[in-house]
Amino acid sequence: MRPALSALINALDLEDFICSFESFLAREKGFVFSGDRQMFVHFLQELESTHLSPLPKLKSLQTALTHLQKFGTLSFEDIFEFVKLVRYFAYLKRVIKEHTPHLYVWLDSIQIPPTMSQLCEIFEDNGELKSGIYPDIDGVKQALAHTQQHISQAFSALLSSTRAYLVDQQIHYINQTECLLLKAGFNNAIKGIIIARSANGFFYVLPQSIAELKTKQSTLNDKLQSLLYELCKDLSASLQKQLLFLRFLNKEFDTFDHIYARHSFAKAYNLEFVYEASKGAIVLRDFCHPVLKNPKPLTIEIGQKITLITGVNAGGKTILLKSILCASLLSKYLLPLKINAAHSKIPLFKNLFAIISDPQNSKNDISTFAGRMVEFAQILGEDNFLLGIDEIELGTDSDEAASLYKVLLEHLSHKHCKIILTTHHKNLAALMANREDVGLIAALYDESVGRPLYEFLQGSIGKSYAFETAQNYGIPATLINRAREVYGEEKLHLNELIERSSTLELELKQKIRALEQKEQAYERKANALNESIARCESEYARTKAELERTYRNALNELKKHMKDNDNKNIHRGINTANAILRTHTHSPASPQKAKSHNLKKGDYAKYGQSRGVVVEIMGEMCVLELENGVRLKLPLHQLKITQKPPAKNTSFAPTSPNTPTNVSLDLHGKRVEEALEELDIFLSNALIAGFDEVLVYHGIGTGKLSAAVAEFLKSHPKVRAFEDAPMNLGGFGAKIVRL
Fold it and tell me: Exposure winner among 80, 267, 442, 648, fewest CB in 10 A?
């Protein structure tokens, strides 16, 4: 991890959070990933609907890859690490299907060579060689097993035959050699080698028969190690031919490790990802800094380039500053947060800087103010960054600092950046408040109870309440009163005037902006109205001309037949003229449609073979409630007024269980097959009823039913779209389906 990034994490109190995340990685590495961020986003989104086995714990393979590059021989442990690596990707290629397209395409591009697949087949899951593949090694292993069995049998026999000389019934280990603890005179019952003597004068004896078996065992072990070494040489040579593939796969493992660790971490702690990197304002909804215990969720919007946070001491200004920087940092590296991600927006900054701690210490021999200037000087040449500064006037005269920082902030404001700073002094706030690109946030104080509220008001300069805070922390009231006298009433009034003036100025700007928006809205409406009038006039002129032309055609046709003085021709001419006129009098936009406009709320109407009551009229459309309770949204001209039929005895007319009487379906507690069958019937009935949006409850549980429902909805030909329901309608436990 870069030193600057490590210092930023320490300044934002994120060490424990980052450490907790890194524990989810399959092998040790930093949290910073390399590669396309958007690809990571697609993978994380697809993992939400996919269940996978965790990645195997792997050690770093860089040393092993270097040995292969130099034609070295790897140990069985290192070779098996590569086997675990290849096996996991083979597993991923088996279980990842087309319903996760980005993961599928990525894995499809990884082609495992047959040689590597064959290598995986010679190992058991615990790293041991499978039997039956290498007969020589199997034979030596069997001989070793028989020898060990003979050693155990020989010790059992000796424990029985030398019972009179045994000090105890145990087999002792002296210098890693198995032996018996015997009394003096043991040589009358057993031949052996004395290895050592105990403190009580007894003898640790290696029996001769056991020594012979141990010699045989040692010889077999040497032979086995020789065979294994030769096998390692052959396998290492095979791996050397796949060196480029192994390097690539090792890198891809780290990529997927980053993704899966983030997914698992978010799931374990119920965190959310802010996937999209927005432009413009920073919007945090219900965000909680990871370091806080039982925090009050933060909702804030930072729209301007420069934001000044003022107000009460110990009121949360610093934690607000850290929270904004923290959310930006975690979002940049796609780490999950405790936040309402759906309603939050966080831009993607190239760099993040935090000037928070006091740089002064005895080692660097630098003052607080000088340290601040050094940090500022390093930032002046940067671009596309988020900068947070705590207590900006720290370390020098506040009046001089206000003038200096005003110039510095104005210089930085020309860059692509956002700057957030906290201050107790009003000088800088008063100098900067009149700028369009400066926003103000005040930490609030409850004067009635004399304590900070840990809440924030945007668009205002806050008081520091230094005297009140000092008294709350134990400074005597007499000293506080003397301090007020020294400070003077004039300065108190001046501070209040500064605050009031800034607040009024902001209110005035907001009112002007609101009036401008209203004026623009009225102009848009006036333009739309003028366009509508022009369209109506044009339509009227066109219709009038068409009617006049039709009338002239009918009249000319009639005059032509009247000249013949033949009654049959005259009647034929009248019929022809009427036919010409009917082309307009029976147009769909005239009497029939106008007649339907006579419908009003409460009328009984007929639609096709169905009847119902008009419950709502919306211009050219209406809502018709059918006799079975289903509501349809229909054009007025498709309805005909009819008489309400007499009431029927419905006690023997049961409603079909598949007829939807509302727009929701509850699948809680259902098996997957049963739930999908009910969902299919429900959607068919909803389409017949004319519903364009329905609600399906499936719950959260293990996630199996939720995933099955999502997969079914993706494949249904009549489902236009679906999404998780709002929190008040079931949240992640329900889907809104658009048909």
Answer: 648
